[in-house]
Design a protein that fits this description.
Elements: H1 3-17, H2 25-32, H3 36-47, H4 51-69, H5 74-80, H6 86-97, H7 101-107, H8 122-129, H9 135-138, E1 143-149, E2 152-159, H10 165-170, H11 175-184, E3 197-203, E4 206-216, E5 228-232, E6 235-242, H12 247-264, E7 272-274, E8 281-286, E9 291-300
Antiparallel strand pairs: 1-6, 2-4, 2-5, 3-4, 3-8, 6-9, 7-9, 8-9
Helix pairs in contact: 1-3, 4-6, 5-6, 8-12
């Protein structure tokens, strides 16, 4: 039932691996063994955009990251990202972001980058394979450790009406726009943190959900429209951590097991009490590279 989700995900992987070659629909269809017409029809159905538009936005977003993070000449970046000339790249950059490459390199203001599409999830994998793995056999030992996070600013969106990831994006927040904008700010990330971060906050006894990026206290960069900046005091956190795992096969049971432990743990067993009034709980979710963790602020008792 979900064969095309998996196939389109392969198309997305192919695009990211061959951006400098300006991947075409024809080369894509040959790789997958389907007609160009059928490929582009299914790609559009699952991503909401044409393959050509997706390639264009991913290429120009890579240009933006090269401008932000390297000292390469603009011409070298243009050629390395598959553009025929610096002029062609500049026209595409201005059309996409409303600013010239040179001006962006100087200002490094937040812009909406095109994030990688994900159309094949653990849910699709589970349905396709009729996966019924027992929860306990799918996970490794969950480690509980203490981590100090210094005072920092958190730039992002706080939604009082929801308390989980899925409900957050279903409540009127544009995932592509928010994630793309935060990706353009990744160079500002607080040292030691993963970058884009979700989590929970508490206001008047009610739990809400947040999504954004932690930056140093001294950060004075632009706050994107629609986002807010909060100062979060330094604190120790209890970290409920599962090491790297296979995202497609094990994401659900790992997240469920980590969160079950995090929400039911008694911090007094380690000499702590929860301290979430003026702080935030965080999620770290990078399955293959980091793993999954829930962080809850604590204070000594």
């Amino acid at each position: 039932m979900y064969e095309w989700n998996e196939m389109v995900q392969r198309m997305i992987d192919w695009v990211d691996e061959h951006l400098e070659e300006a991947p075409s629909l024809l080369s894509m269809s040959k790789q997958l063994g389907y007609s160009p017409h059928y490929c582009t029809k299914q790609f559009h159905a699952l991503t909401g955009m044409t393959l050509r538009d997706y390639v264009r936005m991913r290429r120009i977003s890579r240009v933006a990251l090269e401008l932000r993070d390297t000292d390469k000449r603009v011409l070298d970046i243009a050629i390395g990202c598959g553009f025929s000339s610096q002029e062609a790249m500049t026209r595409a950059f201005v059309k996409a972001f409303g600013i010239t490459p040179g001006a962006y390199r100087k200002s490094k203001r937040p812009i909406k980058l095109a994030v990688r599409q994900e159309v094949f999830s653990p849910y699709h994998f589970a349905m396709k394979e009729q996966w019924n793995m027992n929860l306990k056999s799918a996970i490794q030992h969950i480690e509980v450790k203490v981590e100090h996070i210094p005072a920092h600013q958190f730039i992002g969106i706080r939604d009082k009406e929801v308390s989980n990831y899925g409900s957050f994006w279903a409540n009127g927040h544009d995932c592509d726009e928010i994630c793309g904008t935060l990706e353009s700010m990744s160079g500002r990330t607080l040292i030691g943190q993963l970058g884009q971060t979700a989590g929970w906050f508490y206001e008047n006894g009610k739990k809400g959900y947040l999504y954004g990026i932690p930056v140093p206290v001294e950060d004075t960069g632009v706050i994107p429209e629609g986002m807010e900046c909060r100062l979060i005091p330094a604190s120790e956190y209890l970290v409920f951590f599962h090491p790297p795992y296979d995202y497609l096969k094990d994401n659900w049971p790992v997240m469920q097991a980590v969160e079950a432990l995090a929400w039911n743990f008694n911090p007094a067993s380690l000499g702590y009490a929860w301290d979430e009034d003026d702080k935030q709980d965080y999620q770290r979710h990078f399955p293959e590279g980091y793993g999954y963790a829930v962080l809850r602020p604590v204070k000594r008792i």
